[in-house]
């Protein structure tokens, strides 16, 4: 009788163990990059799509090189934002590149941003700077680097559509005052520090007023930029060589 009772106990234990293993397997979070970056979606939205009428920008579809550079900058403290600095503090370069490539490959529909209510003269001034630059200050047009449709350029120049005016203004201000830095030569620091406060406001308002499209970053290997830029080492190197 004791032997039979022991067999029954062993059988029940085995059954319970198998059921627990099945439940554990069903509840286990998949070990995928999509699952690992769920911490990003609270601010940047599902699939890095962005969040409507909120400060945090879209990640999806931006060039992998650009996203990688920003992740490294946050980790190393060259770009200041405490939650990002904390989240990335101990992640190695290879893992940050995997994160960047994950978001770069996504292409969810863009969010429609709220209409911008700014004076017509300010928007016109912003359009002039974005499309023509400021020759007197040797500031190139935004479209020469970020693309005619402002969708960005591979491998390291981001798109500028779908960003709130206050976000664009804050980033230009961060470059102007050295709070945000990029790989040398830091072309955006040079450009932003040459802009006046009214010019920053005009550019920010105009970019925020543009309709958001699904434009993808341009792929133009060897494209020469109007100014040397560390985020585009190939293009800037060719520019420097051509000027020798």
From TrEMBL:
Residues 1-21 form the signal peptide. Residues 121-211 form the Cytochrome c domain. The keyword Protein transport does not apply. InterPro entries: Cyt_c-like_dom (IPR009056), Cyt_c-like_dom_sf (IPR036909), Cytochrome_c4-like (IPR024167), Cytochrome_c_Oxidase_Subunit (IPR050597). Keywords: Heme, Iron, Metal-binding, Signal. Gene3D superfamilies: Cytochrome c-like domain. It comes from the Bacteria. This is C-type cytochrome. It comes from Massilia norwichensis.
């Amino acid at each position: 009788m004791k032997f039979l009772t022991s067999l029954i106990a062993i059988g029940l234990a085995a059954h319970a163990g198998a059921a627990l293993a099945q439940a554990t397997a069903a509840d286990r979070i998949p070990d995928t990059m999509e699952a690992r970056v769920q911490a990003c979606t609270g601010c940047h939205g599902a699939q890095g799509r962005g969040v409507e009428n909120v400060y945090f920008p879209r990640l999806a579809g931006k060039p992998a090189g650009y996203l990688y550079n920003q992740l490294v900058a946050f980790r190393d403290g060259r770009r200041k934002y405490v939650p990002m600095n904390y989240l990335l503090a101990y992640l190695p370069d290879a893992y940050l590149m995997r994160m960047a490539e994950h978001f770069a490959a996504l292409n969810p529909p863009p969010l429609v941003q709220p209409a911008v209510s700014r004076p017509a003269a300010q928007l016109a001034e912003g359009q002039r700077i974005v499309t023509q630059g400021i020759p007197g200050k040797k500031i190139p047009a935004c479209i020469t680097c970020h693309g005619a449709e402002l969708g960005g350029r591979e491998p390291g120049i981001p798109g500028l559509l779908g960003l709130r005016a206050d976000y664009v203004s804050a980033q230009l201000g961060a470059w102007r005052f050295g709070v945000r830095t990029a790989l040398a030569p830091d072309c955006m620091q040079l450009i932003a520090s040459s802009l006046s406060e009214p010019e920053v406001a005009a550019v920010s308002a105009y970019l925020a007023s543009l309709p958001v499209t699904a434009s993808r970053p341009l792929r133009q290997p060897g494209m020469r930029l109007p100014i040397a830029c560390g985020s585009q080492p190939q293009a800037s190197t060719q520019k420097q060589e051509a000027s020798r």
